[in-house]
Amino acid sequence: MKKRLLLLTGLLSMLVIIAACGKDVPDDLDWQVEDFTYTDHTGSEFGMSDLEGDVWVADFIFTNCETVCPPMTANMSQLQDKLKNEDVKVEFVSFSVDPERDTPEELVTFSEKFNADLSNWHFLTGYSGDEIQEFAQNSFQTLALPDPNSDQFTHGTSFYLVNKDGVVVKKYSGDTNVPYEEIVSDVKALQ
Description:
Layout: H1 2-21, E1 31-32, E2 37-40, E3 45-47, H2 48-51, E4 56-61, H3 69-85, E5 91-96, H4 104-112, E6 121-125, H5 129-140, E7 144-146, E8 153-155, E9 158-162, E10 167-173, H6 180-189
Parallel strand pairs: 4-5, 5-6
Antiparallel strand pairs: 1-10, 2-3, 2-6, 4-9, 7-8, 9-10
């Protein structure tokens, strides 16, 4: 039974990686983001009401990550700089998939490693592991699962573009071959 669970977990992880790295990214997603109110890196409540009327880019990370999260966060920081240089108003939201360890203080320390501008980038925690798993699946059609054999997590590596109505309209590779110019163009088109 344990071997089957390990095999299933391994296969699931590979499918997530393959799906996240695929080149055929759908252009017309229509996934409504569920209403949420969590805790941001300042220790304050932050949720959908704070993003009302804004275009935003989201991803899923955790600070103890040994693989994809550091490059994803570096890439998001680069995207933030590109959009700032274009004078485009956009918000960034990084949901922690490890809320037990990722306190607001840990999230700030992590964000500083990547020169994140926290004026429009919100690192979120303040929910249970079950809550973020369900939220990630329901709102972003992605996984956020603890690895039963380590302190790591299996999660999607996409960047998600959310329109002013709180609908995910597109996703992009967030860890490798990030299509920065396409994302900038798409964000501008939603303004």
